[in-house]
Amino acid sequence: MLRYSDRLHQGMDVYDANDEKIGTVSEILDAAASGTSPSGGGYLRVPTGFLGMGREHHIPFSAIRSVDGERVYVNFPKHRLDELGYGEAPTYIDLRVESAGRRNSPEATRRLRLREEELVARKQSVETGRVRLGKEIVSEERTLDVPVTREEVTIERRPVERRPSDKSIKDTGRTIDVPVRAEQVEVEKQPVVYEEVGVRKDQVTQTRRVSGKVRREEARIKRAGDVSVRSAPGTSGSWEQAMPRYRERWQTRYGNAASRWEDVEPVYRYGHELRGRPEYRGRGWDELEPEFRRDWERRYPNTPWDRAREAIRDAWEDATS
After folding, report:
1. How confident is the model at residue 256 (pLDDT cuts 50, 70, 90)?
2. Between the N and C ends of the chain, which has fewer C-beta atoms within 10 Å?
């Protein structure tokens, strides 16, 4: 089986057999790098869904078809993720040597993965109405004033100096015909373009707030008999156990600020969870900050890194001190 571990890194995009994007690699689970052996070999941890805020899938190295630049291509279609069982996290066998110098057997260390639900917004285009643009004929009465000219006859009579006439009175057959003219108006109708009407669609984006109840799995430790239970070095423990300490630390340092603990708690929790990731152990803040920033901006694009940085660093330094 081909090995791609030396060519894989966080932030690579994963595409299925139909060249459809599945998600972005958030973690590489490989025995050579982490000191643990996931069942079935190495895996890619790939959050799916809107902005990567949906379920996490674990795609084994054996499903990788090829690696091309910043893209990873797998040999199955996207819709078969759950059918192939990639929605379930692999089990682990710890290969590291404990501080006392003894190596754990496969039965000595077992892992229980805790899951939680996150709200994922999916948008679907639906028809909410229809606009139809057409024409119809309507009639209306209009009046047009038109100047017209007509001829009128004026009879002029004036006395003249009396003189003999060369005609006898009985000769009365002579007449004068004067034609009289006038302009008449005929109405014609002709079509003219008076307006153009167009229709187009514009996309208007608005923000809508959605809410829903989500569930989360939490570890519950029950003791039977005389059993000593302690947290292993380098593990973070549950957020519920650690949160009061972070809140007290925040109140001591920033308690008089305008912000509220409810607003900064998610940021502190993010910094707290970083301590449990094996690839960050033994490394300092200055080295890891660019990587933290890329991960934060990918997962929470609506909250600028500059606003969250100090709280994340505070949680990180407190967790690793």
Report:
1. low
2. C
Residue 294 gets the label, from left (phi > 0), alpha (psi -120 to 50) or beta, of: alpha
pLDDT of 15 higher than 90: yes
Distances (CA, A) of 192 to 90, 145, 189, 195, 196: 76, 19, 10, 9, 12
pTM of this prediction? 0.30
Domains with residue ranges and CATH for the chain? 1-117 (2.30.30.240), 233-321 (no CATH)
